[in-house]
User: Fold this.
Amino acid sequence: MLQETGIYKIVGSLYRTDYTPPDVQLLRKLLVLIEEDFRRERDVEVYAQRMGFNITYLNKLTKAYLMETVYEVIQTRLLQEASFMLKDTILSVKQISYELGYCDPSYFCKWFKQRVGVTPKMFRSSFK
Assistant:
């Protein structure tokens, strides 16, 4: 009987499991933007402008939920894609570096080695 009253419906709706807090919604939006553009756009300021927030706020948001700054989130996504491409494609390291937006393949190799500890070629050969 109580379940049919209007107040029960209102109170019950406050505890719905499909509720997503606003900060989580913002984080999802940021991650979607990064996913769409991480190959072309690495400037955190650009993402901040698109979101309508400043970099400091976005960094606090990503640090709170992901334990990384926005820059680190972008770098992590690039590394994931580079690792995938090295393992699962036949593209050369040079082609992969260009695909990921690096103009200089040697810089890409240095960047990759700093994060993984081995060169892209060594990484790839470990999966053969």
Notes: The CA atoms of residues 86 and 123 lie 8 Å apart.
